[in-house]
Amino acid sequence: MEGAETKGDGDGVRPWQSYHTVYTTAKAGMEGVDKEKVQRVVYEMSKGSKYFQNEERKDAYIKQKIDNLRIQCAKLTQADLSNYQKVADRRIVELEASRDLSRIWLHVDMDAFYAAVETLSNPTLKGKPMAVGGMSMISTANYEARKFGVRAAMPGFIARKLCPELIFVPTDFKKYNHYSDLTRKVFRRYDPNFIAGSLDEAYLDITEVCKEKNVKSEEIAEELRASVYEETGLTCSAGVAPNRLLAKVCSDINKPNGQYILPNDRMALMTFISSLPIRKIGGIGKVTEQILKGVFGINTCEQMLEKSSYLCALFSQSTAGLGLGQTDSPQVRFRKSISNERTFSATEDEVLLHKRLAELAEILSIDMQREGLCGRTLTLKLKTASFEVRTRAVTLQKYISSSEDILKHAQKLLKAELPISVRLIGLRVSQFNGDKCSATFDPTQKTITNFISSGDVNRNCCNSSDVVADHDFVSNTETGLSIDSRQTSQLDWRDSVDANHLSDVDYQSFTVWKNDGVEEEQTSSNGAPSSNYSGFAEVLGSTSFQEQYEGINVKNGTNFLADERLNSCCQEKTMLWLNDYKCSLCGIELPPNFVEERLEHSDFHLAEKLQNEESRIHRTPFPTQSEGQKDVITGQSKSKKQKLSQKEYSCFDSLENKLD
DNA sequence: GCGGATCAC
DNA sequence: TATGGTGATCCGC
């Protein structure tokens, strides 16, 4: 690197240096790679393409964003910063206090999973650079290929340029599912309630196993990895830490075929987090990293702490967490939307586009009926020949699921965009209905859909009672949060988990949610399934509902997000700001200029008050909702808790959403 | 409720 | 020749 030349904006001596790809960021197996060369090749192969031009457009937009943030930053006065620093400090203290070091989590991550499985079924591939995928996209590359800079999500034709010997193997999910099942048999022995992240990842709570066997987590990790290898022939890596977020970070450290243990010790934790690059934290991606670096020069979590007052100032509720809290990751919930999309060679032929649209509508309808879903919002997605993405949506009075209905409305949406040259069309249905789709579904209609869906016309949401059951569930968790939904969800909720991504074993593993005592409380108090298993376990413990609620208040008092603002208008009067600074009800301090936070804070107290009233009425720690008020109450408590869980997932994750 | 954007796998 | 598909979430209207 020679200074001046390296900061070029594309017009310098080495234009490739300013082309931001995701392919050179530090990842397992990329250590010895000549990044400069990879960067250059990727740039050369991409330069001038429509894709490249779009990337440049997006990049310019991010640069603009960075500039704006810098300006805002410069406008902050010392007084502002001092106020924000107070808020930031308090949040840090609160999160510190809420940290739980009593659990031991293990994250397992299979090494180059698809590639490893393919090598297992074709040993001649051993030792040769190989990638699973095709010329347009690669899913996984083995470690031999990674030495050349070949990576997942890289187009195949670029990979071949980097590594002319590269062997391409098409994806075969049947195989991957099979081996995934084998690994999970092992996981289950260590934690019967393990949480499957994807085919090749899982989270295990090994606290009990360590106790029972009276061994260190390190030995459990070794033993588990040995078992996986023995029973599958595949290697994996493991990370052990007090929570899932950190466990996942740890499993990446000694990849492949290695492990890293982060002890449940405060100092060790702080040291570890301090030097951790922010990009390693789930939820911080390419863009957020770029912005934090560009605006504040932040690279590590420690630097986030140093800049906490600025982060609070610019991103409102943002960043107080800083990876210090209990946190936790994968949000496994019920499905909220169903979609499909296809890429093809760009065309503006309206007949062709219509044909594509009809095909998508057909497939989507089949998928929906297989899952017993009806929705009222339809979204059309288009990617233009220049890679610009557009979405157009309608929300209907009726709930739909038939291909005819979908196509009819999709066509209208598409028509409004014509003429247009597109390379991708997608359809998505959301806002699912629990109740009767019969209102819009005519069982007598003879559609291709009905025949294709395995001739099982009854297996749609209208005349199959078992499907109606989980239908109710989906609907109610989505909106109504009624008592019925809770009862249903306790029994059936896993049926509504996305079947496209999860195998049967996934369903199994997710029963943790309904079998766990915490989840019971969650569901009862929230009226919706928990979105965060361990986060809530750690925070809520086994306290009563009211205590839990106040606990959340203390920890999260200032962190309510803006989408409740609409409800806030008349609620300030439920409380007072003492000296225009301190909340009269809970004592939390919020400077007058924290307008949003104040509104949100008063929202919280209102919800709390309503909840208290409900508790009294029903004389039960987990109040059931009365018809009249349930929407308001559950709506409030639900949104608060979801935010809490998001907050805990990663203290950073809320940050990136504030960067616009 | 809509549309753009980001992220993870 | 050529840069994916599915689902979720958030923000600012």
TrEMBL record:
Coiled-coil zones: none
Its EC number(s): 2.7.7.7
Claim: Protein transport is one of the keywords in the record: no
UniProt record, GO biological process: DNA repair; DNA replication
Domain UmuC: start-end pairs: 105-285
GO cellular component: nucleus
UniProt cross-references to HAMAP family, sorted A to Z: DNApol_IV
Protein family membership: Belongs to the DNA polymerase type-Y family.
Name this protein carries in UniProt: DNA polymerase kappa
Species annotation: Flemingia macrophylla
